[in-house]
Amino acid sequence: MSDQQRVAIITGAAQGIGRAIALRLAKDGIHVALNDIPNNADNLARVAEEVQAQGGRSTTILADVSVEHEVKAMVAKAVEDLGSVDVMIANAGISPVGSILDMSVETWDRIMDVNLRGVMLCYKYAALQMIKQGRGGRILGAINFSAYSASKFGVRGLTQSLVHRRNMIALELAEHNITVNAYCPGVIITPMTSVEDDAQYGGKPGARVKAWIGAPPDGPDAGPEVIASIVSYLVKPEAYFITGQSIHVNGGAHVG
Length: 256
Fold this sequence. Notes:
Elements: E1 7-10, H1 16-27, E2 31-36, H2 41-53, E3 58-62, H3 68-82, E4 87-90, H4 105-133, E5 137-142, H5 147-161, E6 178-185, H6 207-213, H7 225-234, E7 246-249
Parallel strand pairs: 1-2, 1-4, 2-3, 4-5, 5-6, 6-7
């Protein structure tokens, strides 16, 4: 994977970690295809404006990552608009905060659809496009909290299965010069982790999530830019020897 002009798809790019990653990669000189669901179209358009304001090139693609034909079309649209797909950041995820005792089967299924099947579909269609291009690529998924943790541990297994075979560094995608890694955020202060009843748990953003996972109110947290920084490194050409890894960016507090 060379330093030639590259294109990244970032799913869930309308806010939070996805937005931070999009802005960081655009700053690094990578063209960005910004994805989110139609309900987030206005926020996604604003992120595109931010990218363009800092001199980057972008396109926006509305799609639900849990729907196969939409993911396939998303990859095709990124190629049509920007010329290729060299980086896939399968960042989109949903995380209802609450007890499994209160969770409906429908909610559970939706979490699995988005957080696990959606990542698989992004991995699949990005990899097929990268193999077609013949110049390698970078694939990253996000692992973060009952149903959310279950879905994200699935992402960890999926990520490793694309690299390891029979417990050897045997390499389903390495022969195509494609690396596959996952980043594992701790409590990152975004709209997903800032909820209305934070005030009941200390008043600071993220307080409810920290209480839910058993962390103290003053436990470690950070902004989404810290995730964007590790993603920025992992997609660089010199990171070719890092693959099959789940990299924790959590201040030492494991939450998933």
